[in-house]
């Protein structure tokens, strides 16, 4: 999961993102830069808080997951504000395109994530709705 894109999508500073998970700004920045891995318990808390944010906000946010064994691993977070397209690329395989910001240059770019539809039916429904809103 790209924490930088998630944080900017939610409109949070690094301090606010850290407070969301009860950690310091520096800890969040280490996770965001990839210098330290976010602990699984904090990642789970983050996903729960995203769900709460989604329920109480007009900004739709979905988490794209991958299942490995008994675990669900978040691959990406996409919001209605940065969604561009979702295309079928094969048997139950999809690619979602979203607008992101490069951490180094701060320039926008198109971020692409491949995923299986089987584990992401809710995300696919949101993408379909967002696509129809884009064409209105």
UniProtKB/TrEMBL annotation:
InterPro entries in UniProt: Aca2_YdiL-like, Lambda_DNA-bd_dom_sf, YdiL_sf
Pfam families the UniProt entry points to: Aca2_YdiL
GO terms for MF: DNA binding
Gene3D superfamilies named among the record's database cross-references: Putative cytoplasmic protein
UniProt-recorded name of the protein: Uncharacterized protein
């Amino acid at each position: 999961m790209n924490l930088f894109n998630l944080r900017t999508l939610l409109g949070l500073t690094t301090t606010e993102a850290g407070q969301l998970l009860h950690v310091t700004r520096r800890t969040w920045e280490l996770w965001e830069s990839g210098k330290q891995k976010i602990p699984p318990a904090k990642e789970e808390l983050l996903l729960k808080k995203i769900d709460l944010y989604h329920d109480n906000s007009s900004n739709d946010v979905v988490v794209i997951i991958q299942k490995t064994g008994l675990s669900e691993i978040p691959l990406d977070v996409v919001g209605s504000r940065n969604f561009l397209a979702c295309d079928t690329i094969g048997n139950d395989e999809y690619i979602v395109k979203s607008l992101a910001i490069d951490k180094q240059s701060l320039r926008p770019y198109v971020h692409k994530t491949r995923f299986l539809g089987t584990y992401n039916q809710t995300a696919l429904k949101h993408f379909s709705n967002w696509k129809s809103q884009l064409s209105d």
